[in-house]
Amino acid sequence: MDKVRRLSHIFAKDGKTIIVALDGFGFSKSTDGVDYTVKNLKGLIDHGLDAALVTYGQAKMFEKELADVTTILRVDGSVNVFDSSVPETTQFFGIQDALKLGAEGVVCMTFPGDPEREEFSHKMLSKLAQTAENWNVPVLAETLPYSYPVTTPESNDPISISTAARLGVEYGADVVKTRMTGDIEIDKKIVANAKRPVVALGGPKTDNETYFKFVKNLMDAGVKGVACGRNITKDSNPVGKVAALNALIHQNSSVEEALKIYNSVK
After folding, report:
1. Torsional sign, CA 122, 123, 128, 131
2. Range of the domain at 160
3. pLDDT at res. 202
4. What is the reported pLDDT for 205?
């Protein structure tokens, strides 16, 4: 299978995507709602979910539940899962593991600006991309300036985000997953600099109206979708959340329409 075809499974015909991030077990002990979401994926798929980020273990344990959704394998993980700052990561899996599991792509994190991890993470990405090219497997780079969480103004600075996104592409990424600001004009510059499809990292955990405004602004800035973890898995109505995101991302609906959909779909 060629890379274009695999990307067409991650992105819908409109070139946009809704991805649920189920890979928290590799980075955190705060995973409430993840297994529930996996076991109830059918409802999310029926209401517009395009793909899922999964760990190796999930792909093995939940083969039946994941059968009807495009999966992207997380190949890296934390070396200290009890430290929520994710102080260090390493690569555990590779392209052939993804192919054996039937995944359509792989994802790893990079940390531009981190004096301890930048070199390692970029070398990991570049080697992954080189191997992926041999097998026509898309590579998503989760480019996080300085650190996993936002801890300083620099780690959430638009110039840092834009630079990190472009570095991910320079080292071989086909898709960039990164922080976005929600400011249309600023995010347009990040998208333009990346030169590859940009998918927004989940976004703020806030009330639905504020979150849907954030997503609407992303779409207006040219972002190609969202990869949500807790904004879906910890939502009291995950099916409604995906249905609302589907309206915003794939149907160009208004925030008001998305709120109505969220409240009507259970």
Report:
1. positive
2. 3-264
3. 87
4. 85
Distance set, CA 172 to CA 136, 139, 242 (Å): 12, 8, 30
Contact indicator for 188, 222 with CB cutoff of 8 Å:
yes
Residue with structure tokens 């409604």?
A: 240
Whole-structure pTM over 0.90, yes or no? yes
Residue matched to tokens 């529930």: 36
> What is 44-67 written as a DSSP string?
HHHTT--EEEE-HHHHHHTTTTTT
What is the number of structural domains in the chain? 1
What DSSP string describes 182-229? S-HHHHHHHHHHH-S-EEEE------HHHHHHHHHHHHHTT--EEEES
Q: Which residues in the chain come in under a pLDDT of 50?
A: none
Query: What value does the mean pLDDT of the chain take?
Result: 96
Q: Where are the alpha helices (DSSP H) in 88-207?
A: 95-101, 118-135, 158-170, 184-194
What is the C-alpha to C-alpha distance for residues 91 and 26, in angstroms, rounded to an integer? 11
Q: What is the pLDDT of residue 189?
A: 98
| β-pairing verdict for 17-21 and 51-54 | parallel
pLDDT digits (tens, 9 = 90+) for 62-91: 999 999 999 999 999 999 999 999 999 999
Which CATH number goes with the domain that contains 50?
Answer: 3.20.20.70
Q: Are 212 and 222 in contact (CB under 8 A)?
A: no
